[in-house]
Amino acid sequence: MPYIRPELRPEYDPEIDQLILRLQDHGYNPGDLNYVLTRIAQGFARRHRSYGTFNEVMGVFSCVAQEFYRRVVVPYENEKIGEHGDV
C-alpha cells in the first residue's frame, strides 16, 4: 500500500513533482522511467545490502505494479468499455 501519513508527503512531493516534469519533457519513454525507478531502488538497497532488503525491494515493485493496475489501468479499461462496449 503506497500510502504514507500526509505530514510526511511534503518531504518527497516537491522532488517527485520535478522528476515527473523532467520525465514528461523527455516524452513517452518507458526506458527513462525504468532508469529512474531502478536508480532509486539501487540507492535504497545499497545502504542495506542483504537478501532480505533485496527481497523487500522486489516486493515493493510487485505492489507498485498491482497498485498502478488497480488505480490507473482498471479505471481506464472501464472507461473504454463504456465507450466501445464490453467483450
Which descriptors apply to this entry?
87 residues, mainly alpha, 3 helices, extended
What would your notes on this structure say?
With 87 residues, the chain is an all-alpha fold. It has one domain. It is built from three helices and no strands. The chain has helices at 13-25, 30-46, 51-84. The longest helix is centred in the last third of the chain and has 34 residues, at 51-84. The two termini are 31 Å apart. The model has no long low-confidence stretch (mean pLDDT 94).
Biggest sheet record: none
What do the pLDDT scores average to?
94
Percentage of β-strand residues = under 5%
Helix segment tally:
3
Poorly predicted regions are none
State the helicity in percent bands.
over 70%
* SSE pattern, N- to C-terminal: HHH
Number of β-strand runs: 0
Please identify the structural class as seen in this structure: mainly alpha
Kindly give the count of domains: 1
